[in-house]
Fold this sequence. Notes:
This protein has helices at 6-17, 20-29, 36-43, 50-59, 62-65, 77-89.
Amino acid sequence: MSRFSPADALIRAHLESATPEHWHIYAARSSYDGNLEHLAWLVEQPTLDRGTALLIYWWLGAAWDVQYAREADAISPELYRVLRRIETLYPQHYTSAEFWFDPEHSIGGGPHDY
């Protein structure tokens, strides 16, 4: 039995068969409320584009959540772990840079939010 609701199972099946371009579109058009598990899955994919990783990072609210030095102090430890995971993976894990993302010109979240 799946741990996902039928809707979440459908989303996961789509993401598993999608291309990095589709992942970028999903990240850009997705609701960020209640979607952390799918976004965390994307973060772990070695073919995730650097631009998509940045988009997820900033749109998850990095300007607010990574201000804490320790996970225990964060408002959402689960979200904090995903953000820190992107920071860890970004330098070497994400090698493709096909999609542009500039947090300074983002409508979804950036370094000066919060």
